[in-house]
Amino acid sequence: MPPNVPILGATNVTVIRSGEVAVQNASFSIDKGDYVGVVGPNGGGKTTLLNAILNFLPIANGKIRLFGVDKEKFCSWEKIAYISQQATNFESQFPLTVRELVSLGCIRKGNIGRRFQREDWEAVDESIEFMGLTDVAERRIGQLSGGQKQRVFVAKALARKPELILLDEPIVGVDSEAQEKFYKKLSDLNSERQTTILLVTHDLASVFCRMSKVLCINKKVEVAKITQELDANTLLKRAYGDHFHFVFHKHTCQGAFANE
Amino acid sequence: MSNLIELFGYQFFQNALIGGVIAAVACGLVGLFLVLKKEAMIGDGLSHTAFGGIALGLLLGINPLLTALVVSIVAVFAISYMRRKKIAASDSAIAIMLAVGFSTGLIIISIAGGFNVELFSYLFGSILTIDFTDLMLVSMLGAAVVLFISFFRRELLSMVFDEEDSRIMGIPTKRLAIIFDLLVAVTIVLSIKVIGTILVVALLVIPGLCALKLNLSFRKTLLASVGFSILSTVLGIVFSAVFDIVTAGLIVFVLVLFFLLTLLYKKLS
């Protein structure tokens, strides 16, 4: 892929879900190394947009380009990892250890039905270590805490060394300490490996504190770089409505929002 | 005891043990995935469909296991077609094929009259009548199952665990799901002589359930599933020979005993 080509680009994308327009005329681009928070009200089209990017939903209009290639012609899906909302809702009795689950991340088009190579197992161990899961590597996934489960799924995604990771509300129902740990790992991943991250979340304070871009969606999409000068309140009001008020202090990294 | 040792010297008993172990290995491997997929129903459906194939084979004078295999494979494709075209949901599609297969068998029996005794042996298993031809067929089918699972166990596991993510990773989930259903059909057919079409679902499902109760890693759970399956089949065959009781019933009885024991183990641990 030539430099300066966006990793993800959308031009006038419209997605229809259950007969209704869920995403309307969305145009935006995400560059390599971006750490993007995808925010918006419930039903605003966050998950629908991700599903359209991942080919789970057809687009009614417009064009999505992945790594400079039209999505319809794109075939390097191993460059993309996705962690769904339901990822951690597996049955607690499922017979998988952390290491076994992470190793499943190494399966790709080129090695289906083949033995894993030494590099694959090295990638597995490296991902487990990077996500701070070495101590629980042989434990069954059903025995982990909520925060550990989230990190296992990121480790699984990392095992195939993706360039773009899409996460759909990964920290729901996790305590604040585990959330903090999770965000720290994602930040490390973004800064150390230049992995592009798109994270759907309702945690606005974390978006404006930790991430480089924000993608606001309520049918219509707006993307902005997060800087000191960004008028976050006005941006969010366009997505959440005029009744919404967001107070954010970048220097202390504290945010709060309230209905006026 | 000396009678038992003597039994091991007979060809028919050796055939029974070899055939039983092959069927047990296939059932233990395929069954665990079936349990994890929560699709035990397809095992029941295909085994009843195979009954139609057996009756057809007896009518045409062809090896009934071959006709059962063909009819089960047709049923797998029919179920898959109904799912894909949204003609019927998964469980309904299975129920339709179960009914079609079984009723076809009944009609054939009614038309042909006779062969009731032979048919009985396929319904409830007839392990001591496994001949060399049966053993060859069972061995080939068993080898196909073992080879497929050993090459594609990770892909199958990934698909069972998270189908959406597996698709993104490049796993051909739709094709793999159909191949897996074909594998279920093959496993059922190769187990028919051992345990019969009516009870084969027990050998498919219970070993996996027992293994899951032990809280092991996937690798060890798969081995435990095969272990439970082999142990119950061998014990069933031996008890059957010693006490002169029908083998299929004893195999299921031992399986249920293992299930209760693992349940107790889980409660205690």
CATH topology-level fold name of chain A:
Rossmann fold
Category from helices, strands and their pairing of chain B: mainly alpha
Low-confidence stretches of chain B: none
CATH superfamily of chain B: ABC transporter involved in vitamin B12 uptake, BtuC
The secondary-structure element order of chain B is: HHHHHHHHHHH
The major pleated sheet of chain B works out as: none
Task: Please state roughly what percent of the residues of chain B sit in beta strands, choosing from under 5%, 5-15%, 15-25%, 25-35%, 35-45% or over 45%.
Answer: under 5%
CATH architecture of chain A: 3-Layer(aba) Sandwich
Percent of residues in helices of chain B comes to over 70%
Report the mean per-residue pLDDT of chain B as an integer: 90
Q: In which range does the helix fraction of chain A lie?
A: 25-40%
From the 3D structure, determine the CATH topology of chain B. Answer: ABC transporter involved in vitamin B12 uptake, BtuC
The number of distinct helices of chain A, counting runs of at least 4 residues, comes to: 7
Shape of chain B: globular
Task: Specify the CATH class of chain A.
Answer: Alpha Beta
Descriptive overview:
- The complex is a heterodimer of chains A (260) and B (269).
- By secondary structure, chain A is α/β, with parallel strands linked by helices.
- Chain A has one domain: Rossmann fold, CATH 3.40.50.
- In chain A, 29% of the residues lie in helices and 28% in strands.
- Chain A has 7 helices and 12 strands.
- In chain A, strand 9 and strand 10 form a beta hairpin.
- Chain B is mainly α.
- Chain B is 86% helix and 0% strand.
- Chain B has helices spanning 2-9, 11-36, 40-60, 64-84, 90-112, 116-124, 132-161, 163-168, 173-212, 218-243, 247-268.
- Chain B starts with a helix and ends with a helix.
- The A-B interface holds A 54, 56, 77-78, 80-82, 84, 87, 90, 93-97, 100-101, 103-105, 107-109, 112-114, 138, 140, 160 and B 36, 151-152, 154-155, 157-158, 161-162, 164-166, 168-172, 211-212, 215-221.
